[in-house]
Hints:
The chain is mainly alpha-helical. The chain has helices at residues 10-27, 29-45, 51-67, 82-94, 107-143, 163-186, 207-213, 223-228, 231-257, 285-307, 321-347, 352-362, 366-377, 381-398, 406-417, 425-431, 434-439, 449-492, and strands spanning 148-153, 156-162, 190-191, 218-219, 265-266, 349-350. Helix 5 (107-143) packs parallel to helix 11, helix 6 runs antiparallel to helix 9 (231-257) and helix 6 (163-186) runs parallel beside helix 18. The longest helix has 44 residues, at 449-492.
Amino acid sequence: xxxxxxxxxxxxxxxxxxxxxxxxxxxxxxxxxxxxxxxxxxxxxxxxxxxxxxxxxxxxxxxxxxxxxxxxxxxxxxxxxxxxxxxxxxxxxxxxxxxxxxxxxxxxxxxxxxxxxxxxxxxxxxxxxxxxxxxxxxxxxxxxxxxxxxxxxxxxxxxxxxxxxxxxxxxxxxxxxxxxxxxxxxxxxxxxxxxxxxxxxxxxxxxxxxxxxxxxxxxxxxxxxxxxxxxxxxxxxxxxxxxxxxxxxxxxxxxxxxxxxxxxxxxxxxxxxxxxxxxxxxxxxxxxxxxxxxxxxxxxxxxxxxxxxxxxxxxxxxxxxxxxxxxxxxxxxxxxxxxxxxxxxxxxxxxxxxxxxxxxxxxxxxxxxxxxxxxxxxxxxxxxxxxxxxxxxxxxxxxxxxxxxxxxxxxxxxxxxxxxxxxxxxxxxxxxxxxxxxxxxxxxxxxxxxxxxxxxxxxxxxxxxxxxxxxxxxxxxxxxxxxxxxxxxxxxxx
Length: 494
């Protein structure tokens, strides 16, 4: 069969190769330069290349990096991709020696190393934002430790709590999300270089040295897995997805709390938009932006993970260039959501008048009345529950606050127990007050100030630990960068 076609097909060039080339320029050119330099250092140190050849290639790489204006590069089809562009530049300067840099490596191990290097950079930035949000919410929780709110279940007023207690619940989940994200970043810490195409190489390469120079903890062991495994992708995007899935639920609460009918959360003017026609409107539109940014991020993460579904366990483009670049949009939208939420929630406040109104209207402290009757009147909880329920129904029917319901309580108590209550009217008022409801809930995890302070200390220790782990990883990267620079400069100077 005769085939006179010439690579690249024009349509293939425009739909795939040119966009990939632009993506490499944007995301990977600097990482490829690091890999080239590290690989050259390793080839020289192991004696695979002579000192003379190593020096000549080093000077050529240095010149290519210095003289290439990435912004002016366009894909012409002359070379298959950016890798072959760099190799062609080497060969232009060095002749056949320019091809020696590719000894004992493949685009397969290079690609996965590039992806890991790009992902760890983006993931560390996102983790910093997650930790920053956790710290901002912890500070807000501390400041709002005694600020009463209505806690809701099933969309209905349930019990009295504090804004600080609610925020601590968010921090607790966020810290677990940060731990999952940090673990996923740790999974990026092993280097595929040295796997070559699939099975390593017959040359005496030093995989540990390559890993060290590129800031990895060590080599990824199995060479087949180096080019076939995508769990570093699926694990990372799954961890990112959970951050925004969980925050989306909080954001939905903010929408509910700021509605006119509930009116528990006051959004300041700086974060409110007006209506073009309705003069009275105060629209907390940033909540909607946070909600859709969180949802978009979840969707983008799902897209990346689902793309890996049912792909062969081998090196495949399904997990590579275009897919990776598409995934980076999740970092962008997620980062915006985190920054906005970190600014939004600390700026908001609780409308205490509306909290009091809803507290009175819904009898949300009635559970403590039942508990008090068990403790002070020696009733079973079921008896106490029935008396409290009758009391609540009576005051709600009258539209009166629960604290004014002593008469209704006394009638319900006598009907159930056939005796007068020991509880006085003042004791009844105390038992049904929101401040008292919160103050007696001193158990671990409760909203009472002392319990909340203990929780906040724990959460702050968790964020400190996450920051310490991140610092160690960043120190490893900066140390590797210094070692690579020193080793490469040494070659240049020989």
